[in-house]
């Protein structure tokens, strides 16, 4: 029921937008360009910030680039939002990297934040700046610490999104590659549940709301492969690679606060979400 403006790189794949109902416009540009940002924010009441130029696995190789392109560009976005009369910013942070190694499980919002990669440090810094701008200027914000989203139309050629990437490799008859012994546990959330959680956070009355949005269920990479084998109906090869030092052994979010304050909870179990993603891969192959 809202008018939606999508701001992304001008060369983004338009097929990702085909399933979106009418009532939206696409604006191509560069997040690092102030004029492009200003145009994107013109006439906007709420901003949903999902842009990142880096990924956890490689962000620490060039932290200066991470800061310049993500933190500084986001600060510019916040300043322009103030100038253009934006009422609220919803920042999609990282439920996987801002906490670091878990001291307790599941991980609640008040868990200590000790990121192990630049990606998580920058996400946390953006959270802090949003709080600062609310304190100084009254710019309302919401923070969503999102777990590992997956589902149809995710970039299966990318380096993020284990569930979708693993499914795509199995669908293509290629081996799944796992860093470490496969016992790393993560929290996988179907894309529709992720979107509903983000929208619920935006509607919250808490002027500085912070919410974990995840499945609340921990699944190891080995277990994920078994689930994919069930969906594929055939054997799937696995190639194990040396573990990475920044991969925490287990991450599972406590989503109780979102349930209590937002009335939100995930509705799509992992088996169904994997099946729906597999069906999308099948349709994509036929087309």
What's the short version?
This protein is α/β, with parallel strands linked by helices.
Q: Can you describe what's shown?
A:
The model has no long low-confidence stretch (mean pLDDT 94). It is built from 9 helices and 12 strands. Helix content is 39%, strand content 18%. Strands 3-4-5-10 form a 4-stranded parallel β-sheet, sandwiched between helices. A two-stranded parallel ribbon has the order 1-2. The protein has a two-stranded parallel sheet with strand order 6-9. With 287 residues, it is an alpha/beta fold. The longest helix is centred in the first third of the chain and has 22 residues, at 63-84. Strand 4 (88-94), helix 4 and strand 5 form a beta-alpha-beta unit.
Question: What order do the helices and strands come in, and which of them pair?
Answer:
Blueprint: E1 4-8, E2 24-28, H1 34-41, E3 46-49, H2 56-59, H3 63-84, E4 88-94, H4 118-137, E5 140-146, E6 148-150, H5 162-171, E7 176-179, E8 185-186, E9 188-190, H6 191-202, E10 208-213, E11 219-220, H7 221-232, E12 238-241, H8 256-262, H9 270-286
Parallel strand pairs: 1-2, 3-4, 4-5, 5-10, 6-9, 7-12
Antiparallel strand pairs: 8-11
Helix pairs in contact: 1-3, 3-4, 5-7, 5-9, 7-9
């Amino acid at each position: 029921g809202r008018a939606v403006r999508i701001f992304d790189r001008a060369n983004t794949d338009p097929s990702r937008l085909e399933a979106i109902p009418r009532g939206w416009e696409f604006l191509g540009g560069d997040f690092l360009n102030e004029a492009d940002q200003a145009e994107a924010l013109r006439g906007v009441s709420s901003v949903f910030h999902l842009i990142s130029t880096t990924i956890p696995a490689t962000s620490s190789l060039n932290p200066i680039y991470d800061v310049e392109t993500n933190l500084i560009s986001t600060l510019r976005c916040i300043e322009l939002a103030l100038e253009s009369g934006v009422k609220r910013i919803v920042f999609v942070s990282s439920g996987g990297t801002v906490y670091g190694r878990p001291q307790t499980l599941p991980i609640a919002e008040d868990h200590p934040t000790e990121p192990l990669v630049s990606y998580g440090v920058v996400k946390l810094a953006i959270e802090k700046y949003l709080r600062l701008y609310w304190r100084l200027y009254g710019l309302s914000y919401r923070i969503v610490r999102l777990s590992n989203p997956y589902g149809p139309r995710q970039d299966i050629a990318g380096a993020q999104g284990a569930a979708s990437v693993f499914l795509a490799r199995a669908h293509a008859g290629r081996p799944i590659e796992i860093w470490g012994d496969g016992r790393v546990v993560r929290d996988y959330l179907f894309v529709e549940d992720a979107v509903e959680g983000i929208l619920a956070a935006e509607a919250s009355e808490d002027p500085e709301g912070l919410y974990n949005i995840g499945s609340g269920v921990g699944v190891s990479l080995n277990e994920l492969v078994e689930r994919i084998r069930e969906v594929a109906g055939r054997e799937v090869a696995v190639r194990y690679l040396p573990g990475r030092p920044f991969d925490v052994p287990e991450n599972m979010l406590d989503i109780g606060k979102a349930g209590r304050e937002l009335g939100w909870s995930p509705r799509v179990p992992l088996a169904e979400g994997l099946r729906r993603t597999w069906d999308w891969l099948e349709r994509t192959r036929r087309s």
